[in-house]
Amino acid sequence: VVALTREEVAYPVPNAVAFGLLIGLSVLVVAASLRGPLPWVVILVVAGVSPIVYELQAAAIPASSTAPWADWSSAAIVAIFVVAAATGPPWAWLALLVTWLFIQGDVVHELIAPGTAILLAAALFARSTRANAAEVESLRAREASERAALSVAGESVHRMHRRYGALRESRAVELLEGIADEAIDPDADLDRFSGPRI
C-alpha cells in the first residue's frame, strides 16, 4: 500500500520515517512474541510510538488527497494493536484501545467503527486463550502430580514384595491362620510345618 500510494505523498521523508517506525514496531512485536506473552514494556512502546507513526504519515499526505488507502498507517497500526492485544498482558487491550481512540480523534464515532470492534474482538480472543491455557496448565500439573504419586505407590509395592516375598512362599501364613482358628495345635502339629519351606 505504501508503494502504491507513493504518488499521493507530498513529503516523502516523514512518510519514510513513519514506515521505518512501523517496521521497527512489527519486528519488536514479532521478536518478543517468540519468547512468550508480550511483556508490558513492549505494550508501552507500541502504544507510545504508534501515534508518532500516524502523525508523521498524516503530515506526509496533503489534506486535499482523496485516494483510497492513502492513510495506510491506520490499517497498519490496528494490525499491530490486534497482535499486541491478543498476546500481551490482560490490560494491554485497554491501553491500546485508548491509544487507538486518541489517534483517531473522533472518539464517539470511533467507538462503533471497525477498528475499535477489531481491537475488542482481539481482547475477547486473548481472554479466552489465557483461560484455556491456564486450564491446560492446571490439568498438566494435576497429571504430573498423579504420575508422581503412582510412581511412589509402585515403588512401595515393589519394596513390600521384596520384603515379604519369602514369607508368601513359605507355609508360615497357613500355620498362623490355623493357630488363630484353633485348627492347629502348636504343640502337636508343629512338626508338620517344619522343614525347608519354613
The Cα radius of gyration reads 37 Å
Q: What is the molecular shape?
A: rod-shaped
- Discrete helix count: 8
Overall average residue pLDDT = 79
Tell me about this structure.
The chain has 8 helices and no strands. Helices cover 73% and strands 0% of the residues. α3 (72-87) packs antiparallel against α4. The chain is rod-shaped, with a radius of gyration of 37 Å. The protein has helices at residues 12-33, 40-60, 72-87, 92-104, 107-110, 114-169, 172-180, 186-189. The protein is mainly α and 198 residues long. The longest helix has 56 residues, at 114-169.
Summarize the structure.
The chain is mostly helical and 198 residues long.
Q: What keywords describe this structure?
A:
rod-shaped; 0% strand; 73% helix; 198 residues; single chain; mainly alpha
